[in-house]
Specification:
Elements (H helix, E strand, L loop, with lengths): L41 E8 L1 H13 L4 H15 L13 E8 H14 L3 H20 L1
Antiparallel strand pairs: 1-2
Helix pairs in contact: 1-2, 1-4, 2-4, 3-4
């Protein structure tokens, strides 16, 4: 009598050979070895604001149905697209920061302003956002 499953057939036991390949873990690649970077990676810029500005940002962000971080990001992107002339303003680096998460393209534009104005990246971002907040405040009233 012949078995239905060929594994249980005595004649085929010699013919079937099970080969096991050992599981080899791949060595993790490091950045130096060429690890791929995401094309949509964003860079953080932590912009310090005083208490009044933080309250204003929270209110304006809530009116748009957003959180403060995406709202700050939106303001910087909008300003960089429209290419305003940003007046100089007082910058206090000791305030509480809100981050803005910028794509590489916008971060490069912000870096260009940093070089042009001879200031830090945070100060350039603050100058842009403070100008945009005055515009947004006018729309609020």
């Amino acid at each position: 009598m012949k078995a239905i499953n060929p594994i249980f057939d005595n004649n085929n036991k010699n013919k079937l050979s099970v080969t096991h390949t050992p599981i080899v873990r791949k060595k993790p690649t490091t950045k130096a070895e060429g690890r791929k970077e995401r094309c949509d990676k964003k860079k953080d810029v932590k912009i310090p604001f005083n208490d009044e500005e933080r309250v204003l940002i929270k209110r304006l962000a809530k009116m748009r149905g957003m959180d403060p971080t995406p709202y700050c990001t939106l303001l910087i992107k909008k300003a960089l697209k429209e290419k305003h002339s940003f007046p100089p303003c007082y910058y206090d680096p000791k305030g509480k920061p809100y981050p803005a998460k910028l794509e590489v393209h916008y971060h490069d534009q912000l870096f260009d302003y940093k070089v042009k104005w001879d200031c830090s990246l945070k100060e350039a971002a603050y100058r842009i956002i403070s100008y945009m907040l005055t515009i947004e405040r006018r729309l609020l009233l």
